[in-house]
Automatic annotation (TrEMBL):
Annotated source species: [Candida] jaroonii
Superkingdom to which the source organism belongs: Eukaryota
Record's protein name: Exocyst complex component Sec6p
Amino acid sequence: MSEGALNRISNLISIEDDLNKISQLRTQFLKEKSTIDSKLNNVTKLQIDSIISNLNKLNTSSEKLTTIKSEINKVNSIHGDSVLIEGYEDVMKMTKVNQYFNQVNHLVDDITNFRRNLDNINALIDNELDIITNDITYPLSNMLKIHYNLTQVRNFQDYLETYSQSLSDDMKSIIIRILSPLRKTIKLFDDLLKEIIISLTEAVKEGNLQLVLKLIKIIDYETNEDLKVLLKNNLDLKENVLTVNYGMKRLVKRNYKKFFYDKLEESLIETFDLCINHYSQDRMLVYDNLEWLEDEILFVNDTLSLLFPESWEINNFIQNVYYNKLHNFTMDIIKTDPPAEDLLRILSYDTHYNKFLLALQTVETSDKRKSVIKPQNKSIIGEDLKNVVLDDYLKVILQKMEEWNENLIQTETRTFNQREGPPDLYNYHQVIDDEDINDQPVMLDIETNVYVLPDFKTPLTMLKEQADVAADSGYGKILVGVIEHWSHCYIKRIVNYQEIIDEEFDNYMSIYNNERFLINESKTRRLFRRRQKDIVNLDEMTQEQLSAISKEGLIEYLAALGNTFEINTDRLQDRFLPTYKEKVHSNYQLKIEQAFEDTVTPSTELNAQVIRAIVDIIINDLYPALSKLFTKSWYEDNQSQFSDVQPMAARIVETIGEYMEEFRGYTTYDIYSVTFNVLLDSFISSYIRIGYENILHGDGKKIDPSNTKKFKSFNDAIGRDVTILYGGLESLFTRKDSGYLLNSLRAIEFLSDLATCEQPMEFIPQMWENEILGSFYYCSVEYIRGICLCRKDMDKNEVNLLINSLIKIQKTYHQQVQPPLMVTGTLNDFTFN
């Protein structure tokens, strides 16, 4: 038993109790032994089968070897029989002597007639060359005859030159003199071939296929003969020069296949150089006038290459020659450090050229051939340098865009601050959603002349010019880079306008701020953001001094700014984004989308700042009237119907109406509508806040819910104001938008019930849940706190208990009720002091 088995048994039987397992172990070992025996039998069988197969193959090989030996014996026997022929050696000697005498006779004849033969060949060549030079349709009737005769003469030359290697120097000199006239004939023939090669394309266009076919036949023959010479030299097959049939034997390569490609290349290069020279005054014009090159390549691909053997790769060769010329020409231009515009023209043509080659590759010709050129590897400036040029061009363009943007920012800042005249007018087509008298949706088409900033199209024009050029280059990297940087510049302009608005608004408020009216009615001055010393005394300043601080037309220019960015944002999303996405690969589309998307939020924030500034200016003009809210004079507005003094609400309507009527005449409807909604929210929250503060901190008196005396009823005064406000402002809204006005005014209307209801601790929570939250989903509880503090019959403890209850109700309401599609935000962030 092996040592390994013994070790395993010792490990299994290590204690006395393990002896009880011997039966189980024996059964297990038997199973394992059976498995091992089965595997061993299979392996053994496979090895035996392999041995038998190899023996059979060895036996077959032995039989074949025996057959080969038998055949070799037969050959040896035949050879032995042949050499035993009587006089065999003498016959061989006589044969060689006869061959020598015949060779000498031929040599004498050929040397004697050598000059005359050359003259005949020369005459034929001159005639062919003259005709083909003047008539591209000539089928070269004598071309094959010329080639045959010249081949015989050149074979004779090879023979004499080879044979002369064993002769004396004098004899070599004689042979050289004999052969010297042949140099002229060879040159004439080469000139004829060159003319034929140069005329290939034109000949085929004129239908002269014989010219091409005969040229191919000659070059093909020359190539095969050169190959025979090469094989003989490589195999070291020596022949007796004295007896060789020199008319049929070539001893030296002539390399006419190389001659064909060299002359074809020279012709193509000469053609391209003619184009370069023609535009020597402005070499960039070459790229704009290469239609002839593309036509030539297309003709070669579709027609000429089909006449040549596929192995010649004539199409590939011609494309490569032109590519090399384009590449070298382009590199020469790049070395001169051309301007960015020229670099882009080069890149643009590079893309066009590659697309052109790709189109050739994907269109099958009549015999199903395709170009073997890979366009992606055929950049006329090289892939590595192309990336460098792309980066350099992009840097230059981005730098120019940055400079242009800085100049534009300076111009825009000066124009906005100086406001030397009204903004420009732009005819703007708008489609407005409205409702008819049956509350059915209708669409209104409106043509309006809206204010825009001077040259408001300039930024988008700049984008279009640069992006179109970048798109035409065919490089998505450039287009994306241009659009991304333009977006960066666009946002810088927005940031500059935001700073301008802040500065101009502060200048305006330093002169026209009406918070002093509120201060006069309030016992505390900490409620207002602007300190008294910041406000200019209008009575002490001339109009020129006031204009130097804040020029006229601020609202008009703010409106023009809002219109400008709204219109441009729509154009960017609706026109520019789809246009440029289509011009790039899907890999770049997301970047373009993001670049345009990056401008949306800043533009929206800018327009929000514009609207906020306009609203603050209008609200500022309302402060003198609002300062009397919930005071004695406000209650007594009911008496104004018997006097020439307008009620406060009427003066507010008049002021808002004047602003918004004029505003509607020169803004887009979207800007007008949003501005009016924000104005309503700001006005109504200001109305309520100022009323609260007048009661809590000013001259107003707390509301006595039980007071019903004439001219002292809070309910009557609130109802009067709501009626005047709605009646005076409704005409400024479309039918659809008037709903926002009605709902907003409920914030004032609810005050009458909140201020005068009995048992407010029970009534107000019910009204809060059933009415107020339905109209103002995110209503601030400070709205209720304020009116309750203004009640004469409620103390702070009661108010605090009530507010805690309202907060719980609002939380439950929000869990159970989804917010409306159109939220009225009048009381969302309502606060008071």
